[in-house]
Amino acid sequence: MSAPQQGGGHASADHNPIRGYLIIFAILTATTVFEMIPLFGLADLPGWLLIALSAAKFVAVCSFFMHLVGDHPIFSRLFYIPLVMVILTVSVLMTLFGSWTLQYQGADSDETAAQYAGVHEGDCNSWVTSPFTGNMYCSSPWIAFSTAPAYEALQQPAADIPEFAGFDGKTPEEKEAILVKVGEAVYGTNCAACHQANGTGLAGVFPPLVNDPMVAGPAEAHVNVVLKGMNGVAINGVAYAAAMPAWPQLTDQQIAAVITYERKSWGNNATVVEPTQVAALR
User: Fold this and answer.
1) pTM
2) Domain 159-281 belongs to what topology?
């Protein structure tokens, strides 16, 4: 009588290996296909899951070879002990570097969700799209506002300039002194950038106010230019590129003062302009 055969592997006379081969093939195919999911953009699988899939494939292949040669304990030690050591090592490293987060297609990171308020929620002035999921996040939430307060503020009469207190009762000389003093400040704030502090303008761009026939001419024309602006008019035969903007936002006192300052400075000696004249032309 022959001795009993050792092991339960492929060497057994009554063993049919086909079913085992098919099982191993199915396991390897399934894990391989799952590992390829990130390549098609269907899911961003974390490292720990990919390692687990690779370990499953490794176990399946080891089991297959052990099945062929017989299930002797030496093969278990040769195949499984290194595998367990590798898995433990990788797990420790992934824990240290914090790479266990699982992100599936359709979900953004916690950091993104915390930074941007809401996905497709409410009105928004500006949207950003996640390149990972395609989700839209609001980067600039819509905030209700109204221009009415600012408009109403513009409609309120501007506060009188202190220097103009009792202006109507002043002598012509006193009125001129007040207008020139206030006008110099208004000019420095609003006009000097273009016409220059000395009234010489900028050649070909901004006209000079020195020897300007408008400045030396009737006050009405001067007031209308400041109130309504001017463009495309040659001055002393010279055309200038920049248009004169309108200044209706200035008060009657400010316009009267700045015009008077221009008409009394840099050698100019035209008539003064009073706030009532500006009000009549506004």
Assistant:
1) 0.46
2) Cytochrome Bc1 Complex; Chain D, domain 2 (1.10.760)
